[in-house]
Amino acid sequence: MIAIISDIHSNIEALTTVIKHIKSQNVEKIYCLGDLVGYGPNPGEVVDMASEWDVVLMGNHDEAVLKEAYAFNPIAKSAIEWTRTQLKPGLLSGSKKRSRWQFINNLKLTHTVDGALFVHASPRDPTMEYILRSDTVDLIGNEVPEKIRNIFSRFDRLCFIGHTHDPGIITENSKFLSPTDFDNKFTFESGKKYIINVGSVGQPRDGDTRSCYVTYDGNTITYHRVEYDYKTTIEKVLNISALDRRSGERLALGR
């Protein structure tokens, strides 16, 4: 069984709690769909933990730390710029800082195994394109929107994503299913395709403060929600002047 996590965003309290939960689930491998960093106060520690996982992909925040924070809102951009100062090595930097930077630089964009595509954002744009629940609504008629139809044409069977921090499943006929719609456990039908958003470990945005991740056994996925000490994370953010306080305060709302 595989645990699939995403969007940790430098939240070490959430990550350590989720990893502890994963270890109780008879999981053999951990896949991360990107956004190790951004928003939160502990980028280095998160990267260190990520180096032990089986698959880690590039997210848009990871990419922005390496390059520039184009098309980022001011809250996210300020966090990226601060994170870069924490991770980018200089002439006198030690081996740990250099290895962290190299690890992020070497992250790949996609991973495919047994008909399942793993990517941070979308098969069309691995780090940036948003696949939103609102995209499933056809404003013209009752047909599948062109965006959804095109994205489904780009993978074989399953596509696991993060990026929006909004957990749920999109079906080929353009229905968005929240985990509560199927009691957090869903078995895939043979011959059908699905997009699975695994939610966020470190910045949940679906109105639930708990971290979210999924386990996958090749045929069935289970969503897990895990409580963590977000008050400690908020306090850390508030104590770093370069980070926007809203990056922390929103953790208490799950928004």
How would you summarize the topology of this molecule?
Layout: E1 2-5, H1 12-22, E2 29-32, H2 43-50, E3 55-56, H3 60-66, H4 74-87, H5 95-105, E4 110-113, E5 116-119, H6 146-152, E6 158-161, E7 168-171, E8 176-177, E9 185-187, E10 194-197, E11 211-216, E12 220-226, H7 230-238, H8 245-249
Parallel strand pairs: 1-2, 2-3, 5-6, 6-10
Antiparallel strand pairs: 1-11, 4-5, 7-8, 7-10, 9-12, 11-12
Helix pairs in contact: 3-4
Q: Helical segment tally?
A: 8
* Largest sheet composition: 6 strands, mixed
The CATH class is identified as: Alpha Beta
- Give the CATH topology: Purple Acid Phosphatase, chain A, domain 2
Described by its quaternary structure, the protein is single chain
Question: In whole angstroms, how far apart are the ends?
Answer: 30 Å
Give me the CATH superfamily: Metallo-dependent phosphatases
How many individual domains?
A: 1
Number of strands: 12
What can you see in these coordinates?
The chain contains 8 helices and 12 strands. It is an alpha/beta fold and 255 residues long. The protein has one domain (2-252): Metallo-dependent phosphatases (Purple Acid Phosphatase, chain A, domain 2). The strands form 2 sheets. A 6-stranded mixed β-sheet has the order 3-2-1-11-12-9. The model has no long low-confidence stretch (mean pLDDT 95).
Key attributes of the depicted protein:
255 residues, Purple Acid Phosphatase, chain A, domain 2, 6-stranded mixed beta sheet, 28% helix, globular
